[in-house]
Automatic annotation (TrEMBL):
SUPFAM superfamilies: AFP III-like domain (SSF51269), Aldolase (SSF51569). Pfam families: NeuB (PF03102), SAF (PF08666). Residues 311-373 form the AFP-like domain. Transmembrane segments: none annotated. It comes from Treponema porcinum. GO terms for biological process: carbohydrate biosynthetic process. This is Sialic acid synthase SpsE, contains C-terminal SAF domain. One of its GO terms (molecular function) is N-acylneuraminate-9-phosphate synthase activity.
Length: 374
């Protein structure tokens, strides 16, 4: 059976009471796990990254993320609460601090979100922790990796660090909402075969049935989808999330699909489910969602490549001739207004280098900014 994750994310908006209501909603809808995001704004964005439009007005995106920060005790309580309700606790860290704090509370899974696929310091820290667990004869904490706005090469680099034992991969489109017709779900089976891991989908489309059910027909083993108490509330992902009734419909349809596969056999069951979906959505739509299985950036996420992924940014304005220290560099999402920097793979090269020109706080770091190593 597919492992169904209800992505609560930051829809709780820092309220423990609302977080528990969201867990209850997800459990009632039939999920197997609930997922949270361990947010520290400074691990994700530069303060000068730009603005976001909310119902209450236009505010700096960095400040919006700061509003979503919670203490470690919040997540520890939510882990306990999830377990008390019979579901597992999944959580995404976004930097070294949040990862270290997350690992201290022993999550059931660590989730690496798509923009952190190239956060190599984060991946290395997690890999080192899992290696120490293995050396102590502990089962390494399982890892789920999303692969939106990425290339096969990006995925390969991440899995070279993390390994494949106890690692699952989620096909994803980093667009909100993501068009169903761009999902190319045949890629799920190809990703599983290429990398030797189980694979599934992280679905940001609005339809509660189409992508989740077809992903299972493509041998997906995980379905992740956002949940909210209301699409009208002000959570960052609430507009693309499913309300409880819709999430329950998704779970029901996924389980019905699995029942058909078990009852009729994989080939005949697949034909029957696709035939039913074609009656509702049309054969052309089903064919488009299934796609050709070739990994490529979806049209709706192409412009996000580089800006959503991690790159190196200056954390203060500096003058030519200064030597760059570790605190001067952030491994951040570029997002709205800043220039994209060099990839995180250049972090060690940059630290200790001497600037050839003046740079501004927030600028994306370019290798041409430096004249020599000291």
């Amino acid at each position: 059976m597919a492992f169904i994750i209800a992505e609560i994310g930051t829809s709780h908006e820092g309220s423990l009471e609302k977080a528990k209501q969201l867990v209850d909603c997800a459990v009632d809808a039939g999920c197997d796990a609930v997922k949270f995001q361990w947010v520290y704004a400074s691990e994700i964005l530069h303060p000068e990254t730009g603005f976001v439009q909310l119902p209450a007005g236009r505010i700096p995106l960095f400040e919006r993320f700061r509003q979503l920060e919670c203490s470690p005790s919040f997540y520890e309580e939510m882990l306990r609460y999830a377990h008390s309700k019979g579901v597992q606790f999944v959580c995404s860290p976004f930097g070294l601090k949040s990862l270290d704090e997350l690992l201290q509370i022993h999550p059931d899974y660590v989730k690496i979100a798509s923009p952190e696929l190239n956060h190599y310091p984060l991946l290395n820290r997690l890999s080192e922790f899992r290696a120490r667990q293995a050396e102590s004869n502990e089962t390494p904490v399982p890892v789920i990796v999303s692969s939106g706005v990425s290339t096969l090469s990006d995925i390969e680099k991440a899995l070279e660090i993390l390994g494949t034992e106890g690692v699952s991969l989620l096909h994803c489109i980093t667009s909100y909402p993501a068009p169903e017709a761009e999902y190319n779900l045949r890629l799920i089976e190809n990703l599983s075969r290429i990398f030797g891991v189980s694979a599934g989908v992280s679905d940001h489309s609005l339809d509660p049935v189409l992508v989740p059910v077809l992903s299972v027909l493509c041998r997906g083993t995980v379905v992740e989808k956002h949940i909210t108490l209301s699409r009208k509330t002000s959570g960052l992902d609430d507009p693309v999330a499913l309300e409880g009734e819709q999430f329950a419909l998704m779970v029901h349809c996924v389980r019905q699909c699995e029942a058909a596969l078990n009852h009729y056999g994989a080939e005949e069951g697949r034909k029957r489910v696709i035939s039913q979906l074609e009656e509702s959505y049309g054969a052309g739509k089903i064919s488009a969602v299934l796609g050709d299985g070739i990994k490529r950036l979806a049209d709706s996420e192409k412009d996000n490549y580089g800006r959503t992924n991690r790159s190196l940014h200056f954390m203060r304005s500096m003058r030519a001739g200064e030597t760059v220290q570790g605190a001067d560099v952030g491994v951040l999402r570029t997002e709205k207004t800043l220039s994209v920097g060099a990839g995180p793979e250049f972090l060690e090269m940059v630290i200790g280098s001497v600037l050839a020109r003046d740079v501004k706080n927030g600028d994306g770091i370019r290798l041409s900014d430096f004249m020599r190593r000291v």
